Amino acid sequence: MKLAILSRSPDCYSTARLTEAARNRGHDVEVLDSIKFAIDLERGAPDLYYRRKQIEDFDAVLPRIGASITYYGTAVVRQFQEMDVFCANTAHGINNSRDKLRSLQLLSRHHIGIPRTTFVHSKRDVLPAIERVGGAPVVIKLIEGTQGIGVLLADTVKQAEAIIELLQSQKQNVLIQKFVAESKGRDIRAFVVGDRVVAAMRRVAQGQEFRSNVHRGGIAERVELPPEYVETAVRATQIMGLQVAGVDMLESHNGPQIMEVNSSPGLEGIETCTGLDVAGAVIEYIAAQVDFPEIDVRQRLTVSKGYGVSEIYVPEGSKFVGKTIRGTQLYEHDINVLTLYRGAKVIPNPKPERVLEPNDKLLCFGKLEAMRGMVPVKTRRRRRPEISDLPADAVQAGAVEVSD
To answer: Residue ranges of the RCK C-terminal domain (predicted)?
Structure first.
């Protein structure tokens, strides 16, 4: 395998370890500066040049894109993707994780545990927002901060107001987040590669510092994660669209709560703490995946005229609850079920004999007209929405009785 590591710091611990791990396994590896590329675009022929030489023979790319060059770095990663080169993390995934608000929106949508968070712009909305997350103390975060930078703890409402006003006056977007008191000064970092956690550590802040980042002086200790934490870390990584990530979680009374999903996690702290060859696990995963470049499935599936992708919910009380997927006659309406979502479970390519349960959600590909008949008239979203039955005329038109 010929591997490109995109990094501006070839001598830093993480890049050096990844390079060493690749070479120890017999792979050809080069460290390339992310901003030294030129992107050429022509019909049917996306190209990349590095230091004025054409790039054309890499099997895989491992992006280590710093926050300061996110836009240009992800453009380079995206170009590799368009050239059908396997990228350990995609441009889409990196962008999702880099924006704290966007990442929390995605996780909330998929029922992943997160601290209660609010985002406001108007000064008049600040006090109600603080009240909604449970009052002071609150954590205030810059949307694009890293390594604990731009994370502040406000002990009182007045403190919070003053901090937010100051940051907003500097054109900074901030999040207001519930302070999880039982996890003060400590968190969990799970290092996810593919569909498993390869290493995990607990970070503990020192002194009066509430941020546990190693870069802020935190002490790390190896930890064996309960299954709930492992599943949460892996699902959060997949929801972001990443395959290599560091997932930071708080240990709350309600179970794991995600703080951040890092697309360029450092290796020094977790390898030193656990004694595990994390870099080797990353390289071995990439080597096993090089024949499967990332595909924008939704884009590819929706280019066919009249066909598209949709999510369809099975409502409580539907006559199809208890029936198999085959029994719903979706296939007869030229609709294929790609994935079944059941609570926190994700069931890819479910078998036709799979029995449906109340509130199942189906990711389907098929004729848009057929699926449109399954979606009821949109109503105003309530905090805890109740899913309505299909309109009678949709059923009469030949659609299956499922509901969005």
So the answer is: 296-380
Number of domains in the chain: 4
Pair of tokens at residue 89 = 């993390």
Phi, psi of 2 (to 5 degrees): -105, 115
What does the pLDDT look like over 345-397, one tens digit per residue?
A: 889 999 999 999 998 989 888 888 888 766 544 433 444 444 344 444 443 44
pTM of the shown model = 0.75
For residue 61, is it within any domain?
Answer: yes
Task: Find all residues with CB under 8 Å of 183, minimum gap 6, and list them.
Answer: 250, 251, 252, 257
Give dist(CA 29, CA 14) in Å, integer.
Answer: 14
Range of the domain at 245: 182-291
Contacts 24+ apart (CB under 8 A), 68-72: 69/8, 69/34, 69/35, 70/94, 70/95, 70/98, 72/34, 72/35
Q: What is the CATH number of the domain that holds 14?
A: 3.40.50.20
pLDDT in tens, 5-56: 999 999 999 999 999 999 999 999 999 999 999 998 887 778 899 998 998 7
Q: Are residues 192 and 170 in the same domain?
A: no
In terms of phi and psi (left: phi > 0; alpha: psi -120 to 50; beta: otherwise), the region of 364 is beta
Give dist(CA 136, CA 279) in Å, integer: 41
Strand 186-193 relative to strand 244-252, pairing: antiparallel
DSSP annotation of 403: B
Sheet holding 335-342, edge to edge: 307-313, 361-367, 335-342, 345-348
249 shares its domain with 149 = no
- Phi first, then psi: give them for residue 123, nearest 5 degrees: -60, -35
Percent of the chain that is helix, strand, coil (3-state, to 5) = 35, 25, 40
- Based on the fold, state whether residues 220 and 321 are members of the same structural domain: no
Which of 152, 179, 206 corresponds to the end of one domain?
179
Is residue 109 included in any domain, yes or no?
no
* Cα dihedral sign, 41-45-47-53: negative
Residues 302-352: tens digit of each pLDDT: 666 788 888 888 888 877 789 999 998 888 888 999 999 887 788 999 999
List own/partner pairs for 66-72 with CB under 8 A and 24 or more apart. 66/8, 66/34, 66/264, 67/98, 67/144, 67/146, 69/8, 69/34, 69/35, 70/94, 70/95, 70/98, 72/34, 72/35
Q: Tell me which of 242, 274, 291 is where a domain ends.
A: 291
